[in-house]
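Service request form, structural biology core

Requester: graduate student, group of Dr. S.
Request type: structure prediction, single chain
Budget code: on file
Notes: please return the result as structure tokens.

Sequence provided:
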Amino acid sequence: MPTPPHLAIDPTPAGDLSAARDLLAFIQAAPTPRHAVAEVVRRLAEAGFGSFDEGDSWELAPGTRGYVRRGGGVAAFVVGAEAPQQAGFALVGAHTDSPNLRVKPVSDGESAGYATLAVEIYGGVLLSTWLDRDLSLAGYLVLGDGTEVLVRLDGPVCRVPNLAIHLNRDVNREGLVLNSQNHLSPVIALAGESVPSLLERACSALTGNFAGVRPSDVSSFELSLFDSQPGVLGGADSEFVFSARLDNLASCHAALSALLASPRETAKTRAFVLYDHEEVGSQSATGARSDFLGTLLGRLCRGGGDDALPRALSRSLLVSADMAHGVHPNYPDKHDKLHRPVLGRGPVIKVNANQSYATDAQGAAAFTRACQAEQLSPQYFVSRNDMPCGSTIGPISAARLGLTTVDVGNPMLSMHSCREMAGSADVLPMIRVLSRLFA
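Core staff response, request fulfilled:
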């Protein structure tokens, strides 16, 4: 199997960690969805993929390798040797966004002598994990002419301080209860007339051609807080990945790495799509409920007649890749006792009879065969009958396009925490299985 340019696959056990280290580098470069897209595009371009614009007419031929971006989403494809209506598509879907604290449009505030930021909750944030962490800010600015400029303030910029136990004596007995409006404002400075505004700070972080941008040049912005501490390999023998945004940048990294590692020429047309806004319902122009994937697949069927797309979809498989719930050692009863995925034991197939996951027997069989070809046995996750089940882009995409779909992911702990945990030995197997499906 060819080796992607950013992943030196070594057959030795120690070499398995190269994939985990590359994942950490990928996450470090991607504090927001727009940064994730920029890093994906950088790696694709380095591998020889060309840029395609949705507003242009495309000329595609067998072997064409390209990508198209839309906001915080990106898709990449390799046109197969056979027409999609004959050979079908091999597809992987994931999402670039993670729960976080997002800065409000009017952001600069003051409270009790401190300069603070007004933030909004994005997605299902595990709120308490954002307290007492060294946080920074990243996102993008929109200039007066519509130009988007990525911005990132590295290093600890702000912090949401916890309340001392002396002033909250019952916290360990009754639990920490946070009001999302009153208790999550980050402290960024001591108050004073000379304190720079958030936009002043953001503009001062710009370099290169945008080094001279001033707050008055900025028409709008989207900025989010992120954990400034880089991800690391941890545990007694580096068996864990400790990092922010594993859900779901780990799956984005796997999809990207798998496409780069798959054979250059195959019969099927291969593609991955990385959506934004999954954590808030996918109802956006760059979410799974949009036409992003459908229009891309339609273009890839160009010239095949009016029925080319439905014929192609009937022969296709979508792998919806999103991280899975590993069994928690302190709360094993939160899992069905027969469906307890363990970190380090490989990919998980996620099943829900009520279609919170889109996996059916055909999709599960296809993924299982790919696992077996890589000498792996997939794990399974099914929610307890007395607990609600989360969902993914899988059911949305399956319903919109009529695709056979399987929901999968690597097991993890601390999902939706500011800092999450996964198995370092799981990173490479998922890449290999997805690459097998692409092949």
